[in-house]
Write a structure and sequence with these properties.
Elements: H1 12-19, H2 22-26, H3 29-41, H4 45-48, E1 50-51, H5 62-78, H6 81-102, E2 109-112, H7 115-123, E3 133-137, H8 142-149, E4 157-161, H9 171-177, E5 182-188, H10 200-209, E6 213-217, H11 229-232, E7 236-240, E8 252-256, H12 258-263, H13 301-317, H14 319-340, E9 357-360, H15 364-373, E10 376-377, E11 379-381, E12 384-387, H16 395-406
Parallel strand pairs: 1-10, 3-4, 3-5, 5-6, 6-7
Antiparallel strand pairs: 2-8, 7-8, 9-12, 11-12
Helix pairs in contact: 1-14, 5-13, 6-13, 7-8, 14-16
Length: 414
């Protein structure tokens, strides 16, 4: 870990972005080094690997592991009694955690097994008779398109807005696609290959002007920068805990704006979504209050424990601090890659993107494998090497990663 001291950039916009960063300006170097040491102590993976894949899955923090131990102890000691003594309370605590991160009310949040499941629930509420059209972009995550393509036999027509640069989707292109036949737009808040931050508030206004709804996939945005879901005006928003919320797999959420939620009659449902699950009334369906009606069956309680730990850690570090670190570290990476001659598939302005830096490469899986052999954990998407630092990475790590990446410019061998 001694080798992980942040070194100062000497020139170029990496230097500019660091010197203009309030985080760096406010902190003497020794204080920053100590802060980084504490951040990294939560993530033992940083002792062994140069981990640049948090936009896929942030490694388990120490407190997540302790939370899992607590869950196992409760289950071992109490069996089914643990539901009443602990787990129902934990699940309600998690609902409140998601609400706090989003600026929502707790009853506007449904706990979901995955974003894909959450979208199926949302898709089941629309009347496609009058408005058969759904608008998605061609750089959205697959599930954002598949959810509606699966409804083709019921008359749903999916129109894909084409991103001109495969980085951004200009609002004008959405505006052109939305009309009186449009039921909804479903798109990302942050695009998963480019990190581009979509202006969902402006998009919500465009949708509402034409009477359409906006369904946002916020998996790549939530926890990466401050966001107020009420202020954005979106109708539905989905996300989960794999990435910037640092809570691992098995838990996701659905935000349904109160007026939407209260009128929604989902046909994709489960017994946890009804008004009184413990009445065990098989013959009558009484939807649960507000967003709760979108819940399915027994939730993954272990995942709720790690999710709460991850969100707790995020709040301790501070979402604004995370944002600042993301901009500084990802800009150092982007500037370094540009200087090496790479073609980037992400915005070069850090204010336009999250901590995702993608580099075009003809054999990205082989390149990522070569990096892995050198102890650098990245990810590939078709034609792209995707690198995503988190707040616990250091400037020195970015420089070491850049040294490795430089070797991928020629045939893939490290
Ligand atoms: C933008 C986006 N949406 C959805 C998902 C996956 O959603 P789920 O596996 O919870 O259905 C991911 C990544 O895993 C993602 O990056």
């Amino acid at each position: 870990m001694d080798g992980d001291r942040p070194s100062r950039p000497t020139s170029g916009s990496a230097a500019r972005s660091e010197s203009t960063s309030p985080l760096h300006a406010a902190r003497p170097e020794a204080e920053l080094i100590e802060q980084e040491r504490l951040w990294r102590a939560e993530f033992p993976v940083t002792n062994d690997l140069l981990y640049l894949n948090s936009c896929s899955l942030t490694p388990l923090p120490q407190r997540g592991r302790r939370a899992l131990d607590t869950f196992a102890e409760q289950w071992t000691a109490l069996g089914g009694r643990a539901w009443y003594d602990h787990w129902v309370g934990e699940l309600e605590g998690l609902r409140a955690d998601f609400a706090r991160v989003l600026g929502a009310d707790a009853d506007e949040i449904a706990l979901e097994p995955s974003v894909s499941a959450a979208l199926v629930g949302v898709a089941s509420t629309f009347d496609y008779g009058r408005r058969p059209k759904v608008v998605v972009s061609d750089i959205d995550f697959p599930t954002d398109g598949h959810t509606w393509l699966a409804l083709a036999e019921r008359g749903v027509e999916v129109e894909f807005v084409r991103s001109p640069d495969r980085i951004r989707v200009p609002l004008e292109l959405f505006e052109r696609a939305i009309d009186e036949r449009t039921a909804l737009v479903c798109t990302g808040h942050v695009y998963y290959t480019s990190g581009y931050i979509q202006d969902v508030k402006a998009l919500a206004a465009l949708c509402h002007l034409k009477g359409a709804a906006l369904v946002v996939d916020a998996y790549q945005s939530i926890g990466a920068f401050p966001f107020d879901v009420h202020e954005s005006g979106v109708d539905y928003l989905v996300g989960g805990t794999l990435k910037w919320l640092m809570g691992g797999p098995g838990m996701a959420f659905l935000y349904a704006r109160r007026d939407r939620a209260e009128q929604a009659r989902p046909t994709a449902i489960g017994w946890w979504g009804v008004r009184d699950p413990f009445a065990f009334d098989v013959e009558h369906l009484a939807y649960g209050p507000a967003a709760r009606r979108f819940e399915y069956g027994t939730p993954a309680v272990a995942a709720a424990f790690t999710a709460r730990a991850g969100i707790g850690l995020l709040e301790e570090v501070g979402v604004s601090v995370v944002r600042e670190r993301h901009m500084t570290l990802s800009q150092r990476l982007a500037d370094g890659a540009l200087a090496q001659g790479w073609t980037l598939r992400c915005p070069t302005d850090p204010r336009e993107r999250t901590a995702i830096v993608t580099l075009e490469h003809p054999d990205a899986p082989a390149a990522v494998e070569a990096l892995r052999r050198a102890g650098v954990i990245a990810d590939s998407r078709p034609g792209l090497i995707r690198l995503s630092p988190h707040y616990f990475n250091t400037a020195d790590e970015i420089d070491r990663a850049l040294d490795r990446i430089a070797q991928l410019r020629t045939p893939v061998t490290i």
